Amino acid sequence: MSQTIAQKAAFRLWAAMRDRATTHIRQEPEKPESKQKPKERGARGRFAPTPELPEQIQRLKAQGLRRWQIALKLGVSRMTVGRYWE
Questions:
Q1: Is 81 within the bounds of a domain?
Q2: For the chain, how many structural domains are there in total?
């Protein structure tokens, strides 16, 4: 089956319009560069312990808990527990 010149031209036009219509789907949107200034210390900032924290650590230490268990129970890091471990 032979296509006429008009049929070939119509197909090319249809293909070009199809490609132009779906181009936006294939392209990923450009990500804007972040304009926020970087934070100085971590995501949450510096930890400010309560005055009761050293007492709580010493009390739990006396009960025989390990540093990681105390940190988990009080919701602080192991390094913070180590600071008040004495």
A1: yes
A2: 1
E strand or H helix that includes residue 5: helix 5-26
For residues 77 and 71, give the distance between their C-alpha atoms in angstroms, rounded to a whole number. Answer: 5
Give the tokens for residue 38: 């970087």
Burial code (b: 16+ CB inside 10 Å, e: under 16) for 1-16 equals eeeeeeeeeeeeeeee
Residue 7 pLDDT class (50, 70, 90 cuts): confident
- Residue 39 in any domain: the answer is no
Length of the chain counted residue by residue:
86
> pLDDT averaged over the chain?
80
